[in-house]
Write a structure and sequence with these properties.
The structure is a homodimer.
Chain A lengths: L2 H6 L8 E6 L14 H4 L3 H8 L2 E6 L9 H8 L11 H8 L8 E11 L5 E3 L7 H14 L7 E8 L2 E7 L30 H17 L8 E9 L6 H5 L3 E5 L2 H9 L3 E3 L5 H10 L6 E6 L1 H7 L3 H20 L4 E5 L16 E6 L22 E4 L3 H8 L9
Parallel strand pairs in A: 1-10, 1-11, 2-13, 8-9, 8-10
Antiparallel strand pairs in A: 2-12, 3-4, 3-6, 3-7, 5-6, 11-12
């Protein structure tokens, strides 16, 4: 549905919506474990919630498509993941709380090691320390001299990763990566992908050449590789789209960054699960939408740590009564995508969802897992349809048409 | 699917399709009642039909979107509810059987009371009687003098509601409402939303000014408030789109109006359920598509009358054998949207559907209710996809592609 049409149906309300997002929660069966991570986990509170809710499966982006964290989260927040496909540079920048403007073109920097012939011999510069990273960023920032009209900002992220921001009028993001993606060859030339980006490509060539000189005396981080150029554009906020004052509770910078892009207020002082659930209760009076992000399910999945992922699910289950005690009008528990421990990576599999409200149709699903939720009232639906459903169950949408 | 493509696949036939539409039939559980209205109703005939049919859930317009009667019915007839989002004025006019032309711009009139400073003090003029309404419409009609090129028609609806029709060449519907939607302030100025509508806006301003003078001596209905301006456009008929001679059997004017917009023949002499089912039998030889509309399920739902809605469902169930005795080739039983008694209003919830034909895949569903039909062969599908399915089961579509 056209988001503007949806916005036109908004009606003011005081209802509260909570999204608990277990990153990568979906899985597939591992035979030796007797099921998927969710099937094996003991989670009485989540199962009881499923029993009184509408359940179903979320298709993150499109059948067979494995999403990154950007598209899968945008979809959950109701933003078309194809339209709002965000560059890696932007994601890194927002992830370190860097305040981007609409005059910025951003790219991710990987510090690398090149040999005296200019061939890349280590694409990660031996994973230099955060301290070295910060020192090198300051060194570049202090010595670079590009055009007078364009500001250059170099911000460290961690290890060998940093962010390049070019700020000025008329810059374009259509620039090819310079990262050759393998070792033994030279970095690629910065090339404009469209004629309108030629000016920006010239600047980037100048940036690369100067950086190489400035870093020539470094033993490891003596070169920059650039990826994911993109021009920053302003996103419609959740306030504008849905009339919601939204709070993001996320321990990991990237998810805070995505939240900030859609206009959420972002708490930066949380790190443990206990912190996150406490923050939800502490701020419950002050907002009407809450995004509580749990990273560990995804991390354990990527590590192939089936039991570890099960343990995280069981830990979240123990916090659920605290959430229900707040009596949110709409409570959604789901993930952004699947990260089956069996695959040690994100995957395309649909993942289960619980949607609770006093206005939900209660279906026969009694367990929160990939197989049980197949029979749910929500069916299998694209993640991007979740926000309209949540708003409806929160009684925040009026009738369409006479 | 593109409706023109569908039309290109039509093949002539003598098969007959019956749609029994229980308005607002879908519900959600009321705990104290032990289920939804459909789950609680004793309906052996509907359940037996479900047992030998394909079942599923209809999504009226889009997930989370609560439709009005216009969009939800257009969708059932296979007309995109976003493309054919009809203005309130048009719906009112067609609802009173007023024959619109393509030269007409229509708006709904609410007679209101203003004080001597021109502030609205009662937006419904104390809900004047139908008789007063008719008298005031005649009074306006007799005294108004607008442009020589434009005909003005004022038609009473009921209580404080009437319809304004401006008929002439080049009129536009892009005019803002003058109804301020609250009391204590003056009516809004009629404003053109696009430059091309300036001429029509001038006419509307003149109409409002003259009306105010003509009604000055009325104690209650001394002002007109206008809403839902729209230009009438011709809709492709079901005959053109589907090759069907369609008959509408509906007791309520608005549904007769919608049926007329899509080119159905409309019976106006029915009022009770008994009338409606008798009319179906009486005219069964003469048409090949039948829309039988039952309003009472929606009315009871809007009243919050769970038991009353159950009783209507049970009454319809008793008529079902009469319908099956006619041996329609395709028999669909469903609704246009949900109106849960628990919510006392239309809602966004998907609603169950039975599609019977000798060519349907029989699924395991044995009961006609929201929860049982989740497991049906039709899955959850947008209402707008129902007509192609009905045509297919009636063997009225040929193969697509070689």
């Amino acid at each position: 549905m056209d988001p503007n049409l949806l916005t036109g149906l908004l009606t003011p309300g005081t209802s509260k919506i909570v999204f608990i997002i277990l990153d990568g929660v979906g899985g597939i069966q591992m035979e030796e474990k007797g099921g998927t991570e969710l099937q094996v986990a003991r989670k009485p509170n989540l199962d009881q919630l499923a029993e009184v809710s509408s359940c179903g499966l979320l298709e993150p982006v499109s059948p067979g498509i494995t999403p990154g964290s950007g598209p899968s989260h945008f979809a959950i927040f109701g933003y078309d993941p194809f339209q709002f496909n965000i560059g890696r540079g932007i994601l890194e920048a927002t992830g370190i709380d860097f305040p981007l403007t609409e005059r910025d073109v951003v790219a991710r920097i990987n510090y690398a090691t090149i040999d005296k012939n200019g061939k890349v011999i280590d694409r990660r510069a031996g994973r230099i320390s955060n301290e070295t990273n910060e020192r090198i960023c300051r060194k570049l920032q202090g010595s670079l001299r590009l055009s007078r009209e364009v500001e250059v900002i170099i911000e460290p992220v961690r290890e060998h990763r940093a962010v390049l921001v070019l700020r000025g009028e008329g810059l374009r993001g259509e620039i090819e990566d310079t990262d050759p993606e393998r070792e033994g060859i030279s970095p690629l030339e910065p090339k404009a992908l469209i004629p309108e980006a030629e000016g920006t490509a010239d600047l980037v060539r100048d940036f690369v050449a100067q950086s190489r000189k400035i870093l020539a005396d470094e033993s490891r981080a003596n070169m920059v590789l650039l990826r994911g150029f993109a021009k920053h554009t302003r996103y419609p906020s959740m306030k504008e789209r849905y009339g919601l004052n939204a709070l993001a509770i996320a321990a990991y910078p990237m998810y805070r960054g995505i939240s900030r892009l859609v206009g959420m207020t972002v708490l930066s002082s949380v790190s443990t699960l206990a912190d996150e659930f406490k923050a939800l209760a502490d701020h419950f009076a002050d907002y009407d939408f809450f995004f509580l992000h749990i990273k560990q399910t995804d991390s354990r999945g990527e590590d192939g740590n089936f039991d570890g992922k099960v343990a995280v699910i069981e830990e979240v289950d123990r916090y659920l009564p605290q959430v229900r005690a707040l009596k949110p009008d709409v409570l959604v528990v789901t993930g952004d995508h699947s990260t089956p421990a069996k695959m040690r990576s994100h995957s395309w599999h649909p993942l289960p969802i619980i949607l609770y409200s006093q206005y939900c149709l209660v279906d026969p699903v009694k367990k929160f897992d990939e197989v049980s939720c197949i029979g749910g009232a929500l069916g299998k639906m694209p993640s991007v349809q979740l926000m309209p459903l949540a708003l409806a169950h929160a009684r925040r949408l009026t009738k369409f048409g006479a």
